[in-house]
Amino acid sequence: MNHQFDLIVVGAGSGGYAAARVGRELGASVALVDQGPLGGLCILRGCMPSKTLIATGDAAYEVRHADELGVHAGEPTIDFAAVMARKREIIGGFTDYRVAGIETFPLFRGEASFESPHKLRVGDDVLEGKAFVVATGSTIAPAVFPGLAEVGYIESDEALELAAPPKSLVVLGGGYVGSELGQFYARIGVPTTIVIRSNQLLTDEDTDIGEGLTEYFRAEGIAVETHARVTRVSRGEDGLKVVHYTQDGVEKTVAAHEIFYALGRVPAVAGLNLEAADVTYHAMTGIAIDDTLRTSQQHIFAVGDVTGRFALVHIAIQQGELAARNAVHGTQERADYSLSKTHTVFSDPQVAIAGETEKELHRAGTPYLVASYPFNDHGKAISVGKTKGFVKMMAAPSDGRILGAAILGPNGSDLIHEMIVALHYRATVFDFVTIPHLHPTLAEIWTYPAEELVEKIVAERPLAIAR
Ligand SMILES: Cc1cc2nc3c(=O)[nH]c(=O)nc-3n(C[C@H](O)[C@H](O)[C@H](O)COP(=O)(O)OP(=O)(O)OC[C@H]3O[C@@H](n4cnc5c(N)ncnc54)[C@H](O)[C@@H]3O)c2cc1C
C-alpha cells in the first residue's frame, strides 16, 4: 500500500520520538517507522536499566561502609533475581508509557529500507515523504579480538539481563558503559578486572578526572589494567575465559568466568539502503550531517546515535527537535553543542563535565585559569562521609568568564547543573561568587574554586577587573 506524509521518522527512540512530536506540533502529517522492540535504547537497554542496577550496587557499597557512620550491617546479601525483577518492572513501566506515546502516530512496524530519495519501504507498505528524519540509533560494535567470538562474551544488552551474576568478570573497555556496569558487578560481589588500552578509565576526560576515578576503582578492589593491549582470547584448561594482553612490553593474561565486551557501539545503518536515497554514510562513523542536521540529501535529516558523533540522550532529543523544525519549516537553524556536550558518568564517584575540558582548552590554545577543591576538605562532604573527589572550574583570565567545570565526586550528575546554568548565562566567576549558596550543602563546594579564581584574576589584572 502507498502512503504519503509530510515527515517520515525512521526509528522511534529518543531522537526519532522527539522529531515526530515536534513535527506534529508544527502541523505536519508525521509517520513513525520502527522495527521494534518499541521503546528505544535508553529505556530498553541503555540509560534507565543501567541506572536501575547501579542503584543496587551503590546500596551494597553503602551498607558495607556504613560502619563509618556507626551502623554495623555486615556484608550484604544480594538477591540477584529480585534486582533483575525490580529492573524489569521499572523498565516495563517506562516502556509502556513511551509505547503509548509512539502509538499516537501512524506507526509502521518493520525494517525500513529506502527505495529512492522520497520513498521508503516497510514490508508491504511504501511510504512517500516530503522530508525524512533517520534516527535508527546504534548497534554493539563487532568483536575485534582473535578468539573472542569463539570463546563467547556478553555485551551491554546481556550485562543488563543476566539470569545470575558471573563468578568473576573481565571487562574489556573503560568507557562509561564498562566503568558503570563493571563497578556495579564488582559492588554486588563479582571479582572484576577492567582491561584498558589507555592510562585511565574514561580516556577522553581530563587526566585528573580519569586517573582519579581509576584510583578510586582500584581502592575499592576493582583491578584496572592500564596500557594493556589485548592480543587474543582463549579458553583455559579450567574452562575459564582467558584474555591475553601486553602491558609495557610484557605478555600477561587475566582469566574469568565471563568477558564483558564494552568497547562501544556503531551506527545502525545496515539495511536502510541509504544508497538508493543517495545519502552519504560510513559503516563505522554513521550518516554524515551538516550543522542543520541535513544529510547529503537536503530533505533527509539524521539525528542521534546513527550520526556517530555523540551518544547522549539529551543530544539525540535536541537534534530530533531541531531536525523537525528545519524539515517542516525548511529553515537552516544550526545545532550548537557548546553547552549540550555536557555529560555525566554514573560511576561512584560520579563524573560530570560542563562546557570546555582542560584538554579542549589546551587543544584550542584558549588561555584559562583553573582552580579546584577537594571534597575531603568540604564540611558537608565530611559530615555525610562523601569525601571522594573534587570539583574544578576554568575561567578566562581576561574577564573571569566561566569556560568549563568538572566534578569527580558525590552526586556529580546533579551538582553539575548549577554550572550548566552558569555557563548558559555566560556567568563570570565574579557573578558566581555573589550567588547565595545554602549551608551546609555539597553544592556550596563550587564557591571555593570560584573565589580562588576571583583572587587569581584580581591579582593578575587588578585594574582591568576592578568593579
Ligand atoms: C548501557 C548503556 C547506558 C547508557 N547510558 C546513558 C546515560 O546514562 N545517559 C545518556 O545520555 N545516554 C546513555 N546511553 C546512550 C543512549 O542510550 C543513546 O545515546 C540514545 O538512546 C540514542 O537514541 P537514538 O534515538 O539515537 O537511538 P535509539 O534509541 O537506539 O532508537 C533507534 C530506533 O530505531 C529503530 N531502528 C533501527 N534500525 C531500523 C530500521 N532499519 N528500520 C526501522 N527501525 C529501525 C530501533 O528499533 C530503535 O527503536 C547509554 C547507552 C547504553 C548502551
Kindly describe this structure.
This protein is α/β, with parallel strands linked by helices and 467 residues long. The protein has helices at residues 14-25, 41-45, 47-64, 80-102, 148-151, 156-159, 176-187, 207-219, 274-277, 313-329, 358-364, 379-384, 412-424, 429-432, 447-460, 462-465, and strands spanning 2-10, 30-34, 107-109, 112-116, 119-122, 125-134, 138-140, 169-172, 192-195, 223-225, 228-235, 241-247, 250-256, 258-261, 265-267, 281-282, 286-287, 300-302, 343-345, 350-355, 369-374, 390-395, 402-409. The chain is 34% helix and 25% strand. It starts with a strand and ends with a helix. 43% of the residues are buried. The chain contains 16 helices and 23 strands. The strands form six sheets. Strands 1, 2, 3, 4, 5, 6 and 18 form a seven-stranded mixed beta sheet that branches. A five-stranded antiparallel beta sheet has the order 19-20-23-22-21, sandwiched between helices. The structure holds flavin-adenine dinucleotide. Residues 10-16, 33-36, 40-42, 46-47, 50, 111-112, 135-137, 156, 177, 268, 271-272, 304-305, 311-314, 316 line the site of flavin-adenine dinucleotide.
Note the overall shape.
globular
- Percent in helix: 25-40%
Taking the alpha carbons of the first and last residues, their distance comes to: 70 Å
Note the beta-strand portion.
15-25%
Determine Rg (CA atoms, Å): 24 Å
Structural class: alpha/beta
For the sheet with most strands, the description reads: 7 strands, mixed
> Helix tally?
16
Bound molecules: flavin-adenine dinucleotide
Low confidence ranges: none
Q: Say how many strands there are.
A: 23
Global mean pLDDT? 96
